[in-house]
Amino acid sequence: MTDAAGFSERVERVSISGIREVFEAAGEDAINLGLGQPDFPTPDHARQAAVEAIEAGKADAYTSNKGTLELREAIAAKHRRDNGLDVDPEDVIATAGGSEALHIAIEAHVDEGQEVVIPDPGFVSYEALTHLAGGEPVPVPLRADLTLSPAAVEEAITEDTALFIVNSPANPTGAVQSPADMRAFARIADEHDVLCVSDEVYEHQVFEGEHRSPAEFTERDNVAVVHACSKSYSMTGWRLGWITASTDRVERMLRVHQYAQACASAPAQYAAEAALSGPQDGVDEMRAAFERRRDVLVDGLADMGLDCPTPKGAFYAMPEVPEGWVDEVIDQGVVVVPGKAFGAAGEGYARISYATDMTEIKEAIEGMRAATEATR
Ligand SMILES: Cc1ncc(COP(=O)(O)O)c(C=O)c1O
Fold it and tell me: Is 34's C-beta closer than 6 angstroms to any atom of ligand 1?
């Protein structure tokens, strides 16, 4: 059914992310703590691999729909190295970022009216992609420490549930789920025979605890894992991610990917292969830098009396803030994102990204302090 203007009901249920509006309100000179991308360059060996592929004429043509075999082998090797998972390169689809991986997972598993259980607050795409697939998002409010409770997820599952999404380390909260939680998510997926989509794009940004995947624990292949080079290798502009799942699920997701995308960008695939198989010290350097910035930001927030569970991963903090705080911070020339942009339960919170250099973070803290005094 379409409305009078001829647009689908699905697309009318989605609007452009609230994050954009904040950028526009803040003006050009603002310190931007709203962005979800690392402020580091892409590793040189990854850039060079793309340049060499282009110059050798290797990047001119479509690749296999799933991506080059060499990239998928590098992805399988990464899963063995980092996650202890045995992944068949045939069970991998290289996608246009983690975003497309989420899109094909939801398209391939959600029927009209079916439910998708998502964290609230959670990454903005979960709700929007569910609407675009004709599904119903079922938001699950987080625990006080901003992690997602397996019990609350299980309670939200009905016979109409197609899948649930777990994101650790999480955007917008910086929370990291415990290994026990990850095991519980796998059990829930297996017992209810629903898919768990595990969004692990921030896996390398863990400062406390450890990153584990529910894919390690599923006994019935009910976990699809979403990854990307975007955050791990500072490659947001390259648009290269992937999804891995059981063979039958991959075959269904490939049907969506094949018609929507054909294949991920070939130059980006060469860059990603080099990023995944080359030296990993850049990853560690970024993590160490984020951790230092996190400490400064969290101390600053505590010092102004704002309540903020210490983020254990990603590069976001999510304090509870007084009414009017976000607008006041923006007036002080600092961009942060209102928590409600990530779901109704985000009301009263703000997401602060610390993927910005230390000098700017320190300056921004002073703006936040002034805003806190003004709104108390
Ligand atoms: C939790 C989460 N998942 C997926 C993505 C999408 O990543 P990509 O840029 O690789 O599409 C993002 C981007 O911000 C994210 O925060």
Answer: no
* Prediction pTM value: 0.97
- C-alpha gyration radius of the chain: 20
Residue count of the chain, please give it: 376
CB 116, CB 165: distance < 8 Å: yes
**Ligand 1 atom nearest 167 alpha carbon:** 1
Residue 266 Cβ inside 6 Å of ligand 1? The answer reads no
The residue out of 249, 277, 305 marking a domain boundary is 277
103 and 219 in a single domain? The answer is yes
Q: Pick the atom of ligand 1 nearest to 241's CA.
A: 10
Distance from Cα 223 to the centre of ligand 1, integer Å: 18
Nearest to 366 by CA among 324, 321, 329: 329
Whether 201 lines ligand 1, by a CB cut-off of 6 Å, is: yes
Residues 33 and 61 in one domain: no
Q: Which residue shows structure tokens 């703590």? A: 33
For residue 363, the one-letter residue type is E
47 has a pLDDT exceeding 60: yes
Print the domain residue range for 28: 9-42+281-375
pLDDT score of 132: 98
222 Cβ contact partners less than 8 Å away, ≥ 6 residues apart: 186, 189, 190, 193, 194, 195, 196, 246
What pLDDT does residue 121 have? Answer: 98
Structure tokens that stand for 28 in this block: 């050009």
Residues 261 and 358 in one domain: no
- Compute the distance between CA of residue 173 and CA of residue 136 in angstroms, rounded to an integer: 23
- Residues 165-199: tens digit of each pLDDT: 999 999 999 999 999 999 999 999 999 999 999 99
Phi (first) and psi of residue 173, to 5 degrees? -95, -25
Per-residue pLDDT at 25 exceeds 90: no
